[in-house]
Structures are given as structure tokens and as C-alpha cells.
Amino acid sequence: MGINTNKSVTTTVNGLVAGSALAMAIFSGAAVAEDGPSFSANIGVVSDYKFRGVSQSDTGPAVQGGVDLDMGNGFYLGTWASQVDFAYGADETEFEQDFYGGYAGETAGGVGYDVGYIYYAYHGSDQDEDYQEIYGSLSFGDLSLGFAYSDDYWYQAGEFYYLNAGYSFDLGNDIALGLSAGLNLFDEEIFLDGSDSYIDYNVSLSKEFGGLALSASLIGTDASKAECYGTDWCEATIVAGATYSW
After folding, report:
1. R_g of the chain computed on alpha carbons
2. Global pTM value
3. pLDDT 10s digits, 136-151
4. Positions of E strands within the chain
């Protein structure tokens, strides 16, 4: 049902036309490094895979990992996968795999940007869960603003819009405090039972040891148990994670 925040991609868009217009406006003053292509990879584990505040692993742990190709000119491609558990029973979805590509850089004025496309694929079940999004984000120092748009969200839930904001505090000694919140908007009351919107939030503390990153995050939503399929997937919980990147 979602993309991991450990990846370099930032989720987010209000429509393809809006995203293209934003990209053209930004690129006119862009400063993009011209380096050769390079690969990077990551592997990790979380105590609960939460995406936009909702558990994707039935509140259990998940192993995750991905590979990214940086073209060295602002363009990038990547794929990332995670175990999932949507508690279907016999016809169970086993893992999610995301495929994405985009363009990222920084303007001469120091404003960062990222626009792209992502396809979410789910394996192991006959359920129709795959969907796509276009996304974009802007960053101003430690502040980031993002948006995403899907023409038909997870499990054929109809059009979906996502707006989010985040701020990161450098506490020194490779320790960071992150704050973020997102507004999830649906055209129809399909994804949630009896509601067409909800807010998700994340308060995280992370520490880096070379290529190893450890984190503890308070992640939750304002959705009720009744709105969240009668489960506790949307409730606030502490999520621990460890990711190694190289």
C-alpha cells in the first residue's frame, strides 16, 4: 500500500499537468550536478511497516530493501520491496514491490526539488491491489513540502490526493529529530469506512553509524478503529527500524 520513507524518493502530486508545470518552472533555474551513473542499495527491518500512518504488516515486523540508480544528471531509477500482511487469510498478499523514476536537483537559489512516477505492485494474492502515483516535492533547508496523486488508489479506491510537510532537526552526533504530517484525501469513501480523509503523523528520532541507521518513530493517524477496517492498524505506535545502506 505504500512507499518506504527510507528511500530517496519523496511521495507526492495534484495531477500530471500540475506536476509538469511545477517541474518546468523549477528547471528554468536548476543547478544539477553532472556526474557519472552510480548504484546504491539498502536492506533493513522494521517492527511494523507503516505507510501514511497505516500498518501494512498487520502490526508485525517486515524485512525491506531496495536498489537505486543515480544517473548523475538529476535522473534516477529504483526499486524497493517489503513484506506485507493485509490479513486476507488463504489468499494472502506476501510482498510489495515499488518501481519508480524521477528527476531531482536543486535550483541556483538553494531550493531542492523532486518529481517522478511510482508503480506499486503486490504479489501473492489474486486481489487487484496495484496502483500508480505521480509525485513531487520542494525542500527549503530542513523544511520539505510534498504532494502525490493517484488516479485509482490501492484496492480500486478511486482518485487520491496526498499533501505532506516535514521538518528535520540536526541534534548533533549524527542524531536527527524528524517531524512530519500528511493529509490523505479520497474522492470516495472506499479506502476508509465512512470517511473520505484522514491525517497521518510521524515523530522520529534517528542515529547513524556509518552506513547503519537506527530509528524509533511514533507513527499514527486520526482515523478511528471503525474507519480503519475494525483493526488497530491506524492507531499510534512506536516503530523501531534498522537500515544498512551502501
Report:
1. 18
2. 0.86
3. 999 999 999 999 999 9
4. 30-31, 38-46, 50-51, 54-55, 62-70, 75-83, 95-107, 111-123, 131-140, 143-150, 160-172, 175-186, 197-209, 212-221, 237-245
Please tell me the distance from the alpha carbon of residue 147 to that of residue 11, in angstroms, as a whole number. Answer: 7
Average pLDDT over residues 113-124: 97
Q: What is the rounded distance in angstroms from the CA atom of residue 187 to the CA atom of residue 208?
A: 40
Backbone dihedral angles phi then psi of residue 103, each to the nearest 5 degrees = -135, 130
Written as nine digits, the cell of 51 is 505507510
* Cβ atoms < 10 Å from Cβ of 183: 14
Q: Is the pLDDT at 6 greater than 50, yes or no?
A: no
pLDDT for 53-94, tens place per residue? 999 999 999 999 999 999 999 999 999 999 999 998 878 999
Q: Kindly state the cell numbers that stand for 38.
A: 552510480
- Give the torsion through C-alpha atoms of 84, 48, 65, 199, to 10 deg: 90
pLDDT digits 0-9 by tens, 208-236: 999 999 999 999 999 999 999 899 999 99
40 by Cβ neighbours in 10 Å (0-12 / 13-18 / 19+) ranks as: middle
d(CA 85, CA 83): 7
